[in-house]
Amino acid sequence: MSILRPITLTGKYVVLEPLSPDHHDGLVEAARDGELWQLWYTSVPAPEEMAAEIERRLALQDSGSMLPFTTRLIDPATGGPGGVIGMTSYMNIDAATPRVEIGSTWNAASAHASGSNPDSKLLLLRHAFETLGCPAVEFRTHWLNHQSRDAIARLGAKQDGVLRSHTRSSDGALRDTVVYSILEHEWPMVRNALEFRLARPR
To answer: Cis peptide before 98, with omega less than 30 degrees from 0?
Structure first.
């Protein structure tokens, strides 16, 4: 299973490209759109931290535990890749099962409600289930990140449980982590729901 092979995934609203240091400036501008690093319940890098975050994700790719992407909106004028709006990844990769988590995701504030998030999830879930053959795909988020929890639930993922005092946030506070998953037999229904959402006019 070539799970760690960098790949470009193209949808209706977004293109997911393999993360590269060349994306640095675009990612900085995307993070500045809404000053996302100031949201205490997320882990969006500040502009001065972006280079280190790119390096960190690429190191995890080299170790076999992450496959990171840069998210671009599709330019409606050309139909090709447009501006950078954020990042996402396959992470905590278990190549033997195989199983992946979709996470470390953030998008510029102006891209919210643009269709970018469900389109990105459709691309990643389709690749995981239909190409990689995963029996399950996982999502994790902060207990207090209600926006993220609602978005995951809307995908059709089911809550597996809560890991209490699971990790420490950047400020040192202990975080409770909510774990969700979609199983292979649930994927057709989830796919249909996502495709229906994306078919509606924006």
So the answer is: yes
Residue 121 resides in a domain: yes
- pLDDT, one tens digit per residue, over 99-143 is 999 999 999 999 988 899 999 999 999 999 999 999 999 999 999
- At 169, phi and psi to the nearest 5? -75, 175
Q: What is the pTM of this model?
A: 0.93
Dihedrals φ, ψ of 26, to 5°? -65, -40
pLDDT of 2 strictly over 60: no
Q: Is residue 3 part of a domain?
A: no
Domains held by the chain: number? 1
Q: Give residue 182's domain range.
A: 9-199
Beta bridge partners of 177: 142, 163
What CATH number corresponds to the domain at position 190? 3.40.630.30
Collapsing DSSP to helix, strand or coil, 76 comes out as: coil
DSSP state of 144: T
